[in-house]
Structure formats: C-alpha cells, structure tokens
Design a protein that fits this description.
Blueprint (H helix, E strand, L loop, with lengths): L4 H10 L7 E4 L2 H10 L4 E5 L12 E4 L2 H12 L2 E2 L2 E2 L3 E4 L4 E12 L4 E7 L6 H7 L4 E6 L7 H11 L6 H13 L2 E12 L4 E3 L3 E4 L29 H8 L3 E4 L4 E5 L2 H13 L6 E4 L6 H12 L6 E8 L4 H14 L6 E7 L2 H11 L4 E4 L2 H13 L1
C-alpha cells in the first residue's frame, strides 16, 4: 500500500523528522485560506500515488494566496499518469543549500534491506543513477541489527552526505520498522541555508500483509483494501485478481494454472514447463475452493487471451477434494468455459471429488490422476 506524500509527511513528523509546515486541501478556496495561514508564498503539490509530478506540472510555486487558489484549481483538474488529482498539499517554501536522496528498500533477492543514498538528490536522481552509478551508494542493512547511529554515519559517509543527516537516517529506519514499510524514501532531503535538515518529499510503501495494523492510512477516496481496490500499477489482470482477493501473478504462457498452496502451484508451473508448454500465471486459491473462488479464478484466467488451456491441480487436505469438486461444478455454471480445463484431484476424498466431476460431464473438462499426467494433457491441449 503506497501512501500519499502528505501521509508520509505526517508519519515522518511522528518520528521526529523535520518537515516544512504544510496543509492539505481539496478545494481551491481552501488553498487560498491555507496559503494565508502559511505566510502567503507556498509550494502547491499534487497528491497522487505516482512519480514525476514535477515534470508533469503537478508541483508549482504560488507567490501569494490568490495565486495559490488559482494554482490549486489548475492542479486539481489534472490527471497525472492516469491518476486524477483529488487534493493538493501546500507547503512553506525553504531556502535550499543542498539536496540529497535517501531511502531504505527491501532487497528480496538478498533477503535483507538496502540503504540507497546520494549527495545529488532532486528530480533527476534517476538520471544520476543511470549515468553515474558511482554517485549512488547502496549499503546492505541487516534487519536484525537495524540502523544505529554508527550505521547511519557509515551510510552518510558512503554517499557523501553531511554528518548531520545521520540522525534523520536513524529515524527513517524507525519509520520503516515501526510502520511495516517495504520502502521509505525522501527525495529531496535538504540542508537549508539555515543549516536545518528537512524532508521536503516522502514516499512510503507499506507491506500489504500488515494492512490490518495500518488501517489508519486508508485513503477515503480509495476502496478499503487490495481485495476491493485494483492497483493501477499492476498488470490489468493482476489488478482484476487483486480486486477479488486472489493471489495471482501474470506470466507469459498459454497454460493457465490454479492450485491450492504456493508450493504446489510453483511445482505445477515447473511440471508444465517440463512438458514443453509455458505457464500463463501463478494462481493460489489457498486452503479453500468455494464456488465463488473458483469462478473468480477461472474468470481471471480466461480473460487472458494467451491462455489456451487451464490446469487445476488440487491436493485435498483440510479442504476435501469433494468440496473442491463441488466448487468447480458451481463455478462452471457461473463462468462460460471456452477453453479446455484439466483437473487433477488428489488427497482427502479424491475419489468422491472425481465422481462429482464425472457426473457433471462438462464437454471441456477432463480429469487426470497424476500431476505429471495433468500437466502433459494441459500442455498438449494448449499447444496443438
């Protein structure tokens, strides 16, 4: 779950990180009043969950309250990379002496976190990273050890940041740990002409698995969670699956795969590939296979025009195979099946589950008794 800038700023303040005074509004006239409270001259910033706002015209300086109202009206009418602007933040401008970039991000491949920092922050940090990677320091952070004052000093020294940024680096790590974040980024972190260290912008991504602990950050203009609100950053099919609460990853193949349990689904993908076909997706229905879950899963997979056949591979445990089969039968009544479906049921009540599917006798549904046999048949149907 990504936070808006104003939410990240609120978070930072709570952890003792200095930020400019600001106000968030959703109407131009409110922008005028907010600018008056903030001293007249303000920076008006679109609040959208995407980067590149400045280059898109979503960040502008307003010289006085009247200009703030006019600018807010312009920005509130914008759509930035498909994100309509529902509110703007007005912040007091600061006199900047130097700009820096700092972030902590989960490094999934290494199983650790990574501190990324540069003495050259600002809008063009991506260009700096691409053209002069030596200007961007990448320091591994042991999650168990965290970022102490000594570690923060190490990060600052490696990136060429002034020593006085170390306290902010410690506090940003506290944000990451305390708020279940996968990413905490400040760009730019600035030193003012008065030698104050301020976070002028912030980006925070919280772990969706911790959403139940972070419910206070839900956006009132969004639906309440990933099971109800498609993520615009995802592939359209992944977004549609997320809206239905499905664990789905789009792949480039022709065999759709549904299984119960991440390990079984991963194994199924490997077996499909071993049969000379390419899996089209990862879809784990977990411990349950209700008619609605099966219908939603089939609907998402069949929405992929690249899918030529679907393989359902279920090992009955707590959820028995006959219950899974009943779910598949009811799903077939809800979804118009247009491509072959191969089903392999094994484990608890497998024989009864197979009998239920036999009785349904759908012309596009076949059964197999082994995972290898099911994968071979699905691959054959998808590639013939």
């Amino acid at each position: 779950m990504d936070l808006y800038e104003y939410q990240a700023r609120e978070l930072f303040k709570g952890y003792g990180i200095a930020v400019p005074d600001a106000a968030v509004v959703d109407h131009p006239k409110e922008a005028r009043r907010a600018a008056e409270r903030l001293g007249g001259r303000v920076v008006v910033k679109a609040q959208v969950k995407t980067g590149g706002r400045g280059k898109a015209g979503g960040v502008k300086v307003a010289a006085d309250p009247a200009a703030a109202e006019f600018t807010a009206r312009q920005i509130l009418a914008m759509d930035i990379k498909g994100h309509p602007v529902h509110r703007v933040m007005l912040a007091q401008p600061v006199d900047i002496q130097a700009e820096f970039y700092v972030s902590y991000v989960l490094d999934r491949a290494a199983g650790t976190f990574l501190a990324i920092a540069s003495a050259e922050g600002g809008m063009d940090i991506e260009e700096v990273a691409a053209t002069r990677p030596e200007a961007v320091a990448r320091i591994p952070v042991d999650p168990a050890a965290g970022v102490s004052a000594a570690k923060a000093a190490e990060i600052a020294a490696a990136a060429g940041l002034p020593p006085e940024t170390a306290d902010t680096l410690v506090r940003l790590w506290q944000v990451l740990v305390g708020e279940d974040a996968l990413l905490v980024e400040v760009n730019p972190l600035v030193r003012t002409t008065g030698q104050q260290i301020l976070a002028l912008d912030g980006k925070v991504t919280l772990d969706d698995n911790a959403r139940f602990r972070q419910a206070r950050w839900a956006d009132p203009t969004d639906d309440p969670g990933p099971a109800h609100h498609p993520d615009p950053h995802l592939d359209p099919l992944e977004s549609a699956a997320a809206a239905r609460g499905l664990t789905y990853v789009k792949l480039d193949g022709e065999v759709g795969v549904i299984g119960n349990g991440a390990g079984l689904v991963m194994s199924t993908l490997d077996v499909v590939a071993g049969q000379g076909a390419r899996p089209a997706n990862f879809l784990d229905i977990g411990g349950g296979a209700s008619a609605q879950v099966m219908a939603d899963g089939l609907d998402v997979i069949l929405s992929d025009p690249e899918v030529k056949a679907v393989l359902v591979n279920v090992f009955g445990g707590i959820t028995a195979c006959d219950a899974v089969a009943e779910g598949i039968v009811r799903a077939l009544d809800a979804v118009h099946l247009t491509r072959p479906l191969v089903v392999r049921l094994d484990g608890n009540n497998a024989a009864r589950g197979r009998a239920i599917l036999d009785a349904r006798a759908h012309p596009l549904v076949e059964q197999a008794t082994t995972m290898d046999g099911a994968a071979a048949r699905a691959a054959e149907l998808a590639t013939r």
